[in-house]
Amino acid sequence: MTLPAGAYTVQAKAGHWLRGEGMALTSVPWVFAAPTGADKVTVYWDEVPGATGYRVRWGTASGVYPNASGVLPADACRFTVEGLVSDQEYYFVVEAEYNGVWSAPSEEDSATPHVGAIPWDSGDAASILQAVRAVIGNVPQGQLDVLAPDGRYYTEDSFGNPVVTAPPGIYHSETSSINYQGLEIPLTRTRTEALENTRTGPYRRVRTDNDTRCVGAVARFYLPPRIDPIRGVSHIYVNDAYRAPNRELTVDTPCIYFGLAFPKGDVEGGVMFHPAGRGGNPPVSYARWQPYLALFAGIRKTLPVAGGDPYNPKHHIPDDGWNGLFGYYLDLILMPVGFPFGKLTLLGISAYDVFFEDVFFTHIYIGFAPAVPAEGEGVRVRRVHSIAQMQEAVGNIGGYARSGSFIKNVGVDYEPLFYGVPLDLPAHVLRYQNGRYSWQQWTRSGLSEQSGSAGVFPLLRQRPIFSTVTIAMFRFRPTGGICTTFLNRHGLVN
């Protein structure tokens, strides 16, 4: 620039990138700080293409980082800061370097070291699973899977021995889909607030308003059998042979899940239906519902996913055989862990036999997640029934492909097929109100909510693709806490 003669002060501010020696260097796209001990915090981040090093900066006040690590190598993706004060909140950023030129700081994240923190940095499956159980309760062996911030997956074999593996699935934000070892499963996009046409298949979404301060949900669902054994009609049909015009094979996937959206993250947890012959190598020979827990944070392009392993029978609720003959009652709970909320999210699932109500399947999934804001500010909880379809298959042909797939007679708090009665666990949300958290019935009269077609639910004149039965209001027997049997089974409440 050309300026008149004189003395000037010039300040250069970097936004998200710096250019040095012809190299555009972006800032670190994702950072996650997790307490890993009484006096330490481990910071994780995603790599920056072309970076030759990184450094972590931190302090006890937001936006002020007087402390810094040395220059870390180009392949570094985590750093443990030790010697911190227990129960003191610290704020962290990460900067990327290119031959002496530093990028702008990443977004800030905070963490508080404390006694009993999960030792993520140890990589030791036994100690991590033990620490998680100390937080959530004594979950029986073989019924707990834990997803760590570094993407490692901690579980147990059939003998109860701790095991560390790669996560069973990866979420791709650009395609809004989960890849399970080659099996690409679509999900509806989660971060948009509007009820818009996502072109990923018909679905129904019910969600709380921002001002209700809800941070979790629990409900009992009725999952119908694929084939009605009495009437001989289909309740679930997935047409895996459908091809949209000039498109590849579509993958229709009925899903039932809860979602938790907040300013720095988004969590989805529930079950998805897969017909026989889908997933695995060789393909799984039976139809099943698969639990999954997906954690979306920041602008990461890929994130690990818990549950849903097509190779692992303990992640399957089979539709075939006696247990699936008349469908299931399914208890589903999704909520942050700890009060005040820590950086963990819990998905709990139990499936019951319809007639005898014996527990056939139970499992707890724990995943790392950004901290949910205090008092539920800016948080929304949603309940979704969906037949997700691949965007590549759907294209621009009206919002979804009419492939012939459908699911009917799903019950929310209600079993519509055999008894036709309300279930004994009405849908509730975990809500902050009058200075405390409590479970409250999720009804139109009790909580303000929005529901709608999102632009893709079929018109009434068309045959049903997804049908549900929802009971709006009925009395819940006080038992000292919501979902007491389910939560007590996993040691989640006293």
Give me some keywords for this one.
494 residues; mainly beta; twelve-stranded mixed β-sheet; eleven-stranded antiparallel β-sheet
Q: What is this structure, in a nutshell?
A:
This protein has about 500 residues and is mainly beta. The protein contains 3 helices and 35 strands.
Overall description:
The radius of gyration is 24 Å and the shape is globular. The relative contact order is 0.15. With 494 residues, it is mainly beta. A hairpin with a 4-residue loop joins strand 22 (288-297) and strand 23 (302-307). The chain has helices at 125-136, 391-394, 484-489, and strands spanning 17-20, 23-26, 31-37, 40-45, 53-59, 67-68, 78-81, 90-98, 101-102, 109-111, 144-147, 153-156, 162-165, 169-172, 177-180, 183-186, 203-208, 214-223, 236-237, 253-262, 265-274, 288-297, 302-307, 317-318, 328-336, 344-353, 359-368, 380-388, 406-412, 414-415, 421-422, 428-433, 436-441, 449-452, 466-470. The N and C termini lie far apart (69 Å).
Mass-distribution shape = globular
**SS summary, helix count:** 3
Low-pLDDT residue spans: 12-23, 190-197, 452-456, 472-483
The fraction of residues in strands falls at 35-45%
Q: Largest beta sheet, briefly?
A: 12 strands, mixed
Topology:
Blueprint: E1 17-20, E2 23-26, E3 31-37, E4 40-45, E5 53-59, E6 67-68, E7 78-81, E8 90-98, E9 101-102, E10 109-111, H1 125-136, E11 144-147, E12 153-156, E13 162-165, E14 169-172, E15 177-180, E16 183-186, E17 203-208, E18 214-223, E19 236-237, E20 253-262, E21 265-274, E22 288-297, E23 302-307, E24 317-318, E25 328-336, E26 344-353, E27 359-368, E28 380-388, H2 391-394, E29 406-412, E30 414-415, E31 421-422, E32 428-433, E33 436-441, E34 449-452, E35 466-470, H3 484-489
Parallel strand pairs: 11-27, 29-35
Antiparallel strand pairs: 1-2, 3-4, 4-7, 5-6, 5-8, 8-9, 8-10, 11-12, 12-13, 14-15, 14-23, 15-16, 17-28, 17-34, 18-25, 18-29, 18-32, 19-29, 20-21, 20-28, 21-22, 22-23, 22-24, 25-26, 26-27, 30-31, 32-33
